[in-house]
Specification:
Number of helices: 1
Distance between the termini: 69 Å
Shape: rod-shaped
Structural class: mainly alpha
Largest sheet: none
Number of strands: 0
Strand content: under 5%
């Protein structure tokens, strides 16, 4: 294969991996925020 084509394919793949990683981080942060909200609600109920 031509080196230019290989280079473009690698760039494209790296870009897709970065996008997937960013999306994964957003999902994990949202899950973490939901868990901490639930914990605080249960904590309030338990200590009231």
């Amino acid at each position: 294969m031509h080196p230019e084509i290989e280079y473009e394919l690698m760039k494209n793949q790296a870009s897709e991996l970065r996008k997937a990683a960013a999306e994964h981080r957003r999902v994990r942060e949202a899950e973490r925020a939901n868990k901490s909200e639930r914990r605080s609600v249960f904590g309030k109920l338990r200590f009231s």
